[in-house]
Each structure stands twice: as C-alpha cells, then as structure tokens.
Amino acid sequence: MTILGIESSCDETSAAVVRDGALLSNVISSQFFHTAYGGVVPELASRAHLKAVIPVIEESLREAGLAIEDMTAVAATQGPGLIGSLLVGLNAAKGIALSCRIPFIPIHHIEAHLFSPFLHEHHPAFPYLALVVSGGHTLLVIVEDVGRYRLLGSTIDDAAGEAFDKVAKMMGLGFPGGPAIDRRAARGNPNAIAFARPLIDSGDYRFSFSGLKTSVLYYLRDRAVDGVLSMNDAEIDDVCAAFQQAAVDVLTAKALRAAEEFSLRDIALAGGVSANSGLKETLRVRATDIGRDVFIPDIVFSTDNAAMVARLAELKGLESAAPSLHAPAFARITDTLFHEHS
Ligand code: KG4
Ligand code: ZN
C-alpha cells in the first residue's frame, strides 16, 4: 500500500509518501514570514498554503521516485487547526482522490501526533502514554490501540507551546518563542526564581499554563523602569530557565503519575514542545528512575509534518477511508475521538 499524506493545519505545508511502513519522502515548507507579525496570521497562512501545496506534493512524489498514479490512497488532516489552512490541504487531497479514483482518508491532527513515534523502527508498544505538547494543544492520552484512546486530561487555558511563545514575546525574544527560551534557559539558573507550578498537585491530569505566564508577567513588570524592561542578558537567561523548569516540572510530574497510576511502561512525547531540551532531559531522567521508557521522535516528526499523517493513514487502513468526499474541515478538537477518563 502506498499513501500520499498532506498536512496544512497551521503554518507548515507538508506532503509525504509512505509505502509498506517505510517513509519515502517528507517535504515540509514552513511559513517563516509570520515571525514579523509575532504570531501566525490565519489569512496569510491559507494564502501561502495555496501557493505551496501543489509544488510540495510534486516534490514529495519526486523524492519518493513515484507518480501520483502509484498511490493507493491519499490522506489529509481534517482538523483541528486553522480552518482556512486545513481547507487547502483537504481539498487538494479530495481533488486527487477524485481524479485518480483512489480512496481519501481523513486524519485527525492530534491522532497523527500520537503516532509520530511510529515513524521510527523503535517505537512504543500498546498501551502507551502519550504527552502531546504543541503550540495549540496539551494532552495526556493513553493510546490503547489505533483508534482507541483514553484522554486523561488537557489544558484548561493556554497550551504549553503557547505559554512559551507568550513569555518569549514579553521579553522581546521573537516568534516562535520556544526555541529562544530553550537556548537562553541553557545558560540561566532554573532555581533563580520560584515561579508557580499550576495544578501540579491537583491529583488529576488537567494542565493550566496561564497562571505561570502571569507570574512571569508580574515578575517582569516589577523590574520594569517606566514601563520598559530593564534586565541584563544574564537576568533574562534566569527568567527563561526558571519559567522553563516550572513548565517542565508540571508536564513531567503529571506524565509520570499517569504512567504509574495506569501501569504504562512506554511514554511518548510529541508536538513542537517535545523539541525542548529541558523537557527531554528531565522526562528521560525521571522516567528512567521509575523504570519507564521514553520515546521522542526526531524533531521533523514532532512538529507538524505529513509523514505522521501518511503513517497513521496506513495504520488505520483503507477501511478508514471516507465514504464520500464530504468530510469537512474542523477547527476545534471534538470529544468524539478522545473520551475523557473518569
Ligand atoms: O507542533 P507544533 O510545530 O505546531 C502546533 O501544532 O502548534 O508546535 C509549535 C510550538 C510553538 O509554540 C513553539 O514555540 C514550540 O512548539 N517549540 C518549543 C521548542 N521548539 C518549538 N517550545 C519549547 N522549546 C523548544 N525547543
Ligand atoms: Zn500539531
């Protein structure tokens, strides 16, 4: 079976080809111009997807050494994400399905993240725990099998990556803020400031990052002179390190508690924030201490990409093809796939 996957949920246009478990290509075109606006501008994102989608698909076929006629099926992200962006990839996939008379497999974006570790030979075994941390989502999920998920908890306000982006913005570190905070945190002292660790002892698996963001805001405000931030580089490094450690402590504590409560040996980390060196290191060390295995995909498979879309489509099989081409795009996460565990 050969599958073409397409992903365009936010600011990455991507197409990938998977054949019998092997990834043949994964082309990603990133929209760097959003940096100038300090965040993703939805209307500009969808226009950029329109320009990129066909060349990106063509490039992915070229890299795979295959033609569109060689595809058994085509898959695309249906949601959640930016609706205008999703529509571009989704309609490109539907057009291919129609003209090549092949099945169309709609893919849930978060579900695809859950399976990004399956792009590596060494991947977790069912049931495993997945911590999805991205710019838009923070979820702790038990992956029992393909299509069988138990949502343990998610964020009640900001997503983890969103908190990194907002805190970076407060200090003028650019967008996206996660990588900048990560770099500076490596030079700073994580114990310099005791920031809040919201819900760390809540006993459940809900997350909250807006309180942490606000405590950083108050800290910075107290150090501003006439409304202007007046801190030297070393002090900014300390704020980054202390903020990052607070976020990492919460994410790690909840993931490890879940692994123990539900007796799960394998823990997968996915989504853009899984690139964070502090998170990777802390989770690996603390998980190993309690006999858990941690699986962190390569960064190209962690941030938004079509490889995970094509791979999940393959795992789901042709039975998951849409009965008609009416499958709509959706912006928000629905609770039909991820049932909250009580
Ligand atoms: O999964 P992703 O590429 O896109 C979404 O689906 O949102 O995640 C993007 C997020 C951004 O918030 C970005 O700041 C964050 O991932 N991120 C990081 C790092 N690299 C990217 N956060 C912390 N540390 C990093 N090294
Ligand atoms: Zn994502």
Describe this structure in words.
It is a single chain. The protein is α/β, with parallel strands linked by helices and about 350 residues long. The protein has two domains: about 1-115 and about 300-340, ATPase, nucleotide binding domain (Nucleotidyltransferase, domain 5); about 125-295, Nucleotidyltransferase, domain 5. The protein has helices at about 40-65, 85-100, 110-115, 160-170, 175-185, 210-220, 235-260, 275-290, 300, 305-315; strands spanning about 1-5, 10-20, 20-30, 75-80, 105-110, 130-135, 140-145, 150-155, 225, 230, 265-270, 295, 340. The chain has a six-stranded mixed sheet. Strands 3-2-1-4-5 form a five-stranded mixed sheet, with helices on both faces. A two-stranded antiparallel sheet has the order 9-10. β6 and β7 form a beta hairpin. It is globular. The two termini are about 40 Å apart. The protein binds 5'-O-[(R)-(carboxyoxy)(hydroxy)phosphoryl]adenosine and zinc ion. Zinc ion (ZN) binds near residues 109, 113, 134, 271 and 304.
